Amino acid sequence: MRLTKAERELVRLKFGGRCTYCGVELGQRWHADHFEPVRRDWGEYAKEKPAEAPENHRIENMMPACIPCNLSKHSMSLEGWRRWIAGHINSLNNHHPIYRLAKSYGLIQETGAKVVFHFEKVAQQ
Ligand SMILES: [Zn+2]
């Protein structure tokens, strides 16, 4: 099922034209993300629930997302994705010498910040 142009515009405006997750202003190209994934083929989430959830393909479950967020989230649950993003620091430290070098010269400072999504910040206001 494809969204109509009007439905897509409703989805786009859910967070004032910003990405649900990182909050970047959406340009011309953005994705309508399934908040609860339709396909679940990632790790622990797949064990909890069936692999397919076509009932999640409804407009209330569609969120405006920038392309990098949508591709990164893929079919992960929100909490699984949050852990995945948080783990990027370890990944950078373990596998990317230029990251470690830039860090050792003080060009990069790790903040230990929690991964908080844009929609969560908006809800707190
Ligand atoms: Zn984003």
Q: Give the biggest sheet.
A: 2 strands, antiparallel
Number of strands: 2
Query: Structural class of the secondary structure composition?
Result: mainly alpha
Instruction: Determine the number of helices (DSSP H or I, runs of at least 4 residues).
Output: 7
Shape: elongated
Count of individual domains: 1
Bound molecules: zinc ion
As a percent range, the share of helical residues equals: 40-55%
Q: What is the strand content? A: 5-15%
* Spans where pLDDT lies below 50 across 5 or more residues: none
Describe the structure.
This protein is mainly alpha-helical and 125 residues long. It has one domain. 42% of the residues lie in helices and 6% in strands. It has helices at 5-12, 43-48, 67-73, 78-86, 88-95, 97-104, 118-124; strands spanning 31-34, 62-65. The chain has a two-stranded antiparallel sheet. The protein is elongated and about 50 Å long. The model has no long low-confidence stretch (mean pLDDT 89). The structure holds zinc ion.
Task: Provide the fold topology.
Elements: H1 5-12, E1 31-34, H2 43-48, E2 62-65, H3 67-73, H4 78-86, H5 88-95, H6 97-104, H7 118-124
Bound molecules: zinc ion.
Residues 19, 21-22, 24, 65-66, 69 line the site of zinc ion.
In short:
The chain has 125 residues and is mostly helical. The chain contains seven helices and two strands, in the order H-E-H-E-H-H-H-H-H.
Looking at this protein, list some descriptive labels:
2 strands; mainly alpha; binds zinc ion; 6% strand; 125 residues
